[in-house]
Give the backbone structure.
Amino acid sequence: MASSGTNPPPSSASGSSAGPPGEGGTAAWELLTTAAAAPARGRGRALQSALREAVRSGRLGAGTRLPASRELAADLGVSRGLVTEAYEQLTAEGYLRSGRGAGTWVSDAVRAAAREIRDLAPRPPGARADFRPGTPDLSLFPRAAWSAAHASVLARLPHHALGYPDPRGLPALRTALAALLARRRGVAADPERLMVCSGVAQATTLLGFALYGRGLRTVGMEDPGSPEHASLFASSGLGTVPLPLDAEGLAPGPLARSGVRAVVTTPSHQFPSGISYSPERRTELLEWARSVDGFVLEDDYDGDFRYDRAPVGALQGLDPERVVYTGSVSKSLAPGLRLGWLLAPRELLDELVERKRTMDLGNPSLDQAVLAEFIERGGYDRQLRRCQRAYRERRDALVTALATHFPGTEVSGIAAGLHVIARLPERYGPEPRFLRRAEEAGIALRPLADHGTARPADGHVRLVIGYAQLTPGGIQRGVRLLAEAVADR
């Protein structure tokens, strides 16, 4: 399995040293690169702190050989004295060890603590493992490449570009996103009809206001589905109607009888079931939208993460006038960036743009320019490949761990995304007792029942298990701890 870029650099056993700081695949060196850019007066302390944290967190594993002080100083663009002082300080503290003529290495003394933190981070206070879905691995954020794009943009961005932006978004970003989405997701992407938003959450709210202004009062939602959509539409005055799924997607009969004229869908990788809408069901859904003069909101939340074959293309490409397409960088980069997009049908565009203008006057120009630069120079494609390798490995680790510690478990929705559905054998039920024991043991879980209205009558435990935020080792350990917690006592 290809390396995800999050594992520690090779240890002394292999005779290798950590790669140079400029290599974007080594997260530890990216931390040092950021520290090297600190103000001159505090640069030494920042470098020591970043190096200490890289060792403590496990990004630099025990036994890793560090570059010579002269080499690291040259790569970071700092004085050799700063690096030498950092090495000496951390050696005195026990984080590093050195020998005359033998170089500098990460000390074995921090091995146990580093593994414990690396395997289970990030986790909520008091939790020993967090399997809740929806969170990517934030340590995969490409700090060095993003920092380089930021510096490049600042150096050449004209002054006028820092004024109030076009509420649709920076033209350069809309052009870059349109090309990216057409190439990767098969959408019909016109930059003039693309809006940059503060994530899918804002895109959904904007659409809610536009629909409300057209007289709609309810929107259909997949059941099971994402509970966040209901609260977002409620903020714009719209109610929601749960609509059941079958093996091919939204069931057409209940949809037709519901009386709604707009519906939220996740057709490429339904959340949380993991199914991909069949070609026939996609066609039926679009025919329904045309027949009621309505719209389909396509939340393409993780369309790029498909592991065993090419990703399924977006629904929007089949009918751009009936599908409102949304997506973001929340899973591929980081949710904290608050950068997403909305591709609007022509008849909704002016209303959506005006609502965006009055809501916040547009997203920050500098952030948009950095993302445009990152996409244009190939950084976004590289980031997606890096994440796909890491998440495929973690998916495989989860499936293996469940088979080992919960034999007989049925796992579905594994072809794509950042979570799976696990249906445990009846002997592990009832579900309330299972969840209670998991919580008592500090294992954070989310049952499938939290995502819909259905309450199965059988005794099976059904879980939506997120795996992106944990390393393979953390997944294996977390599943083992869960099995120990729920075993009969």
Summary: The first helix runs from residue 27 to 36. The CA atoms of residues 168 and 353 lie 6 Å apart. Confidence is low (pLDDT under 50) at residues 1-28, 111-123. DSSP finds 16 helices and 16 strands in the chain.
